[in-house]
Design a protein that fits this description.
There is one protein chain. The protein is mainly beta. The chain has seven domains: 66 residues, no CATH class; 52 residues, no CATH class; 52 residues, no CATH class; 42 residues, no CATH class; 44 residues, no CATH class; 92 residues, Immunoglobulin-like (Sandwich), CATH 2.60.40; 452 residues, Methylamine Dehydrogenase, Chain H. It is built from one helix and 79 strands. Strands 43-50-49-46-47 form a five-stranded mixed beta sheet, with no helix packed on it. It has a five-stranded antiparallel beta sheet with strand order 68-69-71-72-70, with no helix packed on it. The protein is flat. The protein starts with 6 loop residues before the first strand and ends with a strand.
């Protein structure tokens, strides 16, 4: 049957009215045509929402008394005002089961069920049904004519119909009025009817309630007890005794009291030590765990008279009385009372450590606790174990008494001869020596040492041993060349050696026993040579192989001669074709050879031909009378080395002149990052009026001399822009970066005055016409953002410029990818080209394995259509060319990416790693490219190797640095040479700068520590920490080798000589940005250290 829902009579009326008309859609002929909202059921159009014959579906009929409710469900049809409850129409105003029902008469709409004696009031509320004449007040039917609380009440007994509450002493008169008329048993006192049996103010009153008839007023805490007497008012369960409310179940003075607590109802007084038990009975009060027995609290676990008692200690709960000699055991059982350490067995106290019948017994001496009975010949050994009874000094082992001092199977046994007490079994050939130790049984005269019988009179390892050959008895170990003779070590020397001082010496060479013979005693002990002498053929001779003087026939020694200096440089004019050297020996009798030809001390050598336009090495070998040899070297430079010492035109402390350098032919450029002038453009005011703006100085060489040609500033100078951070020079074009420049412009020649992107960076291009320089372009990245450091590195070749921005954040890879910010400090490089005087960006370069923190663009280099980009933070552990790029197993190892251009399109040609990749090596910190050769610096490399292709796996010199030379064949790159400094040491940072031009390669090491100067030779002297050095390598026949070790002309600690350098042809430019001279211009006073960190540059041409 369809679900029945409530549907009010109004709906039924609507339904009946609807059914009284013709059904829509019926026609006089043919199939009926049903209207909107109707369904054809058979031949009748029906509204399935309301049609009781087709309710919800065709042919579904509602039951009699139901209608279709408009939603297609059958529902009971009740008259207006009625509610369908439980399938019946009820009146919710009068129905007692559903009083106040509404809606569908379910849940909260079901109304309430009126209680017994209640009716549904006609307003849908349950209320009392009172007999005629009564009124329902406060839930009770009252007589309004007599009820004192609602005297005269009527209606619903609320508000004015509630009647009045009659006053004290008044009654409701029977006519619904209050009046003073005391009922029987009450007494009128003070205008009020009171009950003299209960009234506290007139307790016991009578008559007219005056004088002695006024009763008494009960005291505080008393009541009038219902009999007209004042007494205490006690809480339920308490009894008033002696003027106090007490608990008769627990009160010790009136235990069990009741009634008025007098006579037999006064209870009993509990005795001392008793309590009123809580049930009104006196009984002993025993602590927890005790039991009351015979009027005394006893411990049932220990009481001998009531051992094990419980409950009320009566009958079977009274426990047992322990017999004489027994105690109550503490567990409520009677047992023998044995002294400490004894156990009760079979009714007797026994010692379980010694009793042979119960050896090892414990507890109650039953079952497994009964111990064991020792066998015949055994005793209970005092530790509760049965064992053989052996005579004193013997031990029971394996059921037999043995002597542990001599028994070979149990040598040294003790105790129970078990485990570690079982002694040891002596090996074959050993005896138990009488002291309980196994030792070799050696023939008379021999001693057992280290498990072997030796002869102490001849054994070299235990010479003179005795006894047990241990400690001081182990004898002595004879030294090398000694033998043991009659138990004493002494030298055994083979001729021509002689035993002297306990050792064999060669008297012909020994400086302490020079010329000794025989027993080396007295005059035969020879002589001791003095310091600086050696023993030669049994006689003392000088060992001084030094020179006391050295002179040359042309030029001058550099440095000046010093006996302690071994290497010198001499520069001579080109017309000098030969040179003579005059060496003087310090020691008489010393011999000298110059280039292998003997020369007398103090005499000139034969003329030595000099290589035209090159260097000639001269070797001077001094041999002392002792045979000791010292070699001196002199390098003669024919035609010399043209050098210059360059300073800024406005030298000032902290300017860092030489922070970056560039060189091309006869032009060089030097930046001073800390220079303070606010000038702009070319050759402006050089005053110090804006901190750390930076400047660039251009020098040109004229007739062999360098002169300053221009003083360059940016077109928009600003504090801390780092103008001059990187330089690159190509012909008449100079690129100058300012990595700290703050404009948010993009592209070429944008708005320079906008400082909306801190440290975004910029590059300024200057161009020379004749001798005049002018700014040609102001370049910005295509995706300028704060902190990108565009211009960190620049490289220029003709009309192509590459710019590095190592902290750019795009996660793109390859060429011209997306320029978003998905990889913090991944880095990027930008390629610009010039057409006429117009610069445009040609390419946006990213690494093929872009990663956050890789610093791609930390270094850049370009040669023709090939460029290289360093990424010092790249983390792959790959080695060589085109290895696995996704491996990040070597953080900070670094990588270099080579790109090649075809037409205007750049593509990555190679991914290069060091051959000995290591975390933190910073491979790619510097790059230089010339044709098909690429040099890469790695200042963090740690090998202590020197020269070319040394041991790369040796990491004993952290931060010594290395340079890797790669060459290209076709389009394939491979490592050609691994270069190290000739004096590689930790912290030298070899490879901080590199420059390559055809067959020459220059490398800087700003952390090198030698105090040598110019073309130095004292490589191992670390007297000027952080002074720095440069190294010149030359390729000959495909092999790279070091040509020169170069130092500043005024070497000083912390000058960082070599931090930047540039090479062009046979001219080298080396910077020392921390040099301290206050000189200005060219070849000033380099010894004056009055301007800390002013900086200097040095040139050398050969």
């Amino acid at each position: 049957m369809p679900h029945v829902r409530i549907f009010f009579f109004l709906g039924l009326a609507f339904f009946l009215a609807a059914c009284s008309s013709d059904s829509p859609g019926e026609t006089s002929g043919g199939a009926p045509q049903c209207g909107t909202g109707q369904t054809l059921c058979g031949d009748v159009c029906a509204d399935l929402a309301t049609d009781a014959a087709h309710c919800g579906a065709c042919d579904v009929s509602c039951e009699e008394g139901q209608l279709c409710d408009g939603a297609g469900e059958c529902a009971v049809s009740c008259q207006r005002g009625l509610v369908a409850c439980d399938g019946t129409c009820i009146d919710p105003d009068t129905d007692r089961d559903h009083c106040g029902a509404s809606g569908d008469c379910t849940g909260s709409d079901a109304g309430v069920t009126c209680g017994a004696g209640e009716i549904c009031s006609g307003a849908g509320r349950c209320e009392l049904s009172c007999q005629s004449g009564l009124v329902a007040c406060d839930g009770t039917c009252i007589d309004p004519d007599t009820d004192r609380d609602h005297c005269g009440a009527s209606g619903d007994c609320t508000g004015s119909d509630a009647g009045v509450a009659c006053g004290a002493g008044e009654i409701c008169s029977g006519a619904g009025r209050c009046e003073l008329s005391c009922q029987s048993g009450l007494v009128a006192c003070g205008g009020t009817c009171i009950d003299p049996d209960t009234d506290r103010d007139h307790c016991g009153a009578s008559g007219d309630c005056r004088g002695s008839d006024a009763g008494e007023a009960c005291a505080a805490g008393e009541i009038c007890n219902g009999a007209g007497r004042c007494e205490l008012s006690c809480q339920s369960g308490l009894v008033a005794c002696d003027g106090t409310c007490i608990d008769p179940d627990t009160d010790r003075d009136h235990c069990g009291a009741s009634g008025d607590c007098t006579g037999s109802d006064a209870g009993v007084a509990c005795g001392a030590g008793e309590i009123c038990s809580g049930a009104g009975r006196c009984e002993l009060s025993c602590q927890s765990g005790l039991v009351a027995c015979g009027g005394t609290c006893i411990d049932p676990d220990t009481d001998r008279d009531h051992c094990g008692a419980s409950g009320d200690c009566r009958g079977s709960d009274a426990g047992v009385a322990c017999a004489a000699g027994e105690i109550c055991s503490g567990a409520g059982r009677c047992e023998l009372s044995c002294q400490s350490g004894l156990v009760a067995c079979d009714g007797t106290c026994i010692d379980p450590d010694t009793d042979r019948d119960h050896c090892g017994a414990s507890g109650d001496c039953r079952g497994s606790d009964a111990g064991v009975a020792c066998a015949a010949g055994e005793i209970c050994n005092g530790a509760g174990r049965c064992e053989l009874s052996c005579q004193s000094g013997l031990v029971a082992c394996d059921g037999t008494c043995i002597d542990p001092d001599t028994d070979r199977d149990h040598c040294g046994a003790s105790g129970d001869c078990a485990g570690s007490d079982a002694g040891v079994a002596c090996a074959a050939g050993e005896i138990c020596n009488g002291a309980g130790r196994c030792e070799l049984s050696c023939q008379s005269g021999l001693v057992a040492c280290d498990g072997t019988c030796i002869d102490p009179a001849t054994d070299r390892d235990h010479c003179g041993a005795s006894g047990d050959c241990a400690g001081s008895d182990a004898g002595a170990i004879c030294g090398a060349g000694e033998i043991c003779t009659h138990g004493a070590c002494e030298a055994s020397c083979a001729p021509p050696l002689v035993a002297c001082g306990g050792a064999c010496v060669d008297p012909s060479t020994d400086a302490t026993y020079c010329g000794a013979a025989g027993d080396c005693a007295g005059a035969r002990a020879g002589v001791t040579c003095s310091a600086g002498e050696a023993c030669v053929a049994g006689a003392c001779a000088s060992a001084d192989a030094s020179l006391s003087g050295l002179a040359v026939s042309s030029g001058a020694l550099s440095p000046a001669f010093d006996p302690g200096s071994r290497l010198y440089v001499v520069s001579v004019e080109d017309q000098i074709a030969s040179i003579e050297v005059t060496p003087t020996a310090s020691a008489e009798g010393a011999t000298i050879a110059v280039n292998g030809i003997s020369v007398a001390s103090g005499s000139a050598s034969p003329p030595i031909p000099l290589i035209e336009g090159g260097s000639t090495a001269i070797t001077i070998e001094v041999t002392a009378p002792s045979g000791d040899v010292t070699t001196y070297g002199v390098v003669v430079l024919r035609g010399g080395v043209a050098s210059a010492y360059l300073k800024a035109s406005n030298t000032d402390a902290g300017d860092q002149f030489g922070f970056a350098v560039a060189l091309d032919g006869n032009t060089l450029a030097v930046s001073a990052l800390g220079e303070d002038s606010a000038a702009t453009g070319v050759d402006g005011d050089q005053n110090d009026n804006t901190k750390n703006c930076g400047a660039v100085y251009v020098f040109v060489r004229d007739g062999g001399s360098w002169v300053q040609q221009a003083y360059l500033k940016p077109s928009a100078a600003d504090v801390n822009d780092d103008f001059g951070y990187s330089l690159s020079l190509s012909g008449d074009t100079l690129a100058v970066s300012a990595r700290g420049e703050d404009s948010n412009a993009t592209g070429v020649n944008g708005n320079q005055a906008n400082n909306g992107a801190a440290n975004a960076g910029a590059v300024y291009v200057f161009r020379r016409s004749g001798a005049v320089w002018a700014q040609e372009a102001y370049l910005k990245a295509s995706n300028t953002e704060a902190q990108d450091q565009f211009g960190y590195a620049v490289a220029l070749a003709g009309d192509t410029l590459v710019v590095g921005a190592p902290t750019e954040d795009s996660s793109a890879t390859g060429v011209n990818g997306g320029q978003g910010n998905g990889a913090s400090q991944a880095g990027a490089a930008y390629v610009f080209t010039r057409a006429g005087a117009t610069w445009t960006q040609q390419a946006y370069l990213k690494a093929s394995n872009t990663g956050a923190g890789d610093m791609f663009g930390a270094s850049v280099a370009i040669s023709g259509d090939t460029l290289a980009v360093g990424a010092t933070g790249e983390a792959s552990a790959a080695t060589g060319a085109n290895g696995a790029q996704a491996d990040n197993g070597a953080p900070g190892s670094g990588a270099v990416y080579v790109f090649a251009r075809a037409g205007t399109t750049w593509t990555q040609q190679a991914y290069l790693k060091a051959s000995n990749t290591g975390a933190g090596d910073m491979f790619g910190v510097s790059v230089a490219i010339s044709g098909h050769a690429l040099a890469v610096g790695a200042t963090g490399e740690a090998s202590a190797a020197t020269g070319a292709n040394g041991a790369q796996a040796d990491d004993s010199a952290p931060g010594s640095g290395a340079v890797y030379v790669f060459t290209r064949s076709g389009t394939s790159w491979s490592q050609h040479t691994y270069l190290k400094a000739s004096n590689a040491e930790s912290g030298d940072a070899f490879g901080a700068s590199v420059s390559i031009d055809n067959e020459f390669l220059a490398v800087g090491a700003p952390g090198e520590d030698s105090s040598s100067t110019e073309w130095g030779w004292l490589e191992s002297d670390n007297g000027a920490p952080g002074s720095g050095a440069a190294y010149l390598f030359e390729r000959s026949g495909g092999v790279w080798s070091q040509d020169a070790y170069i130092k500043a002309s005024n070497t000083g600690a912390s000058d960082a000589f070599g931090a930047r350098l540039a090479l062009s042809g046979t001219t080298l430019l080396v910077a020392a940005a921390s040099e301290d001279s206050s000189a200005t211009g060219v070849d000033g006073d380099g010894a004056n250290d009055a301007a800390d960190g002013s900086g200097a540059c040095y040139t050398a041409s050969w």
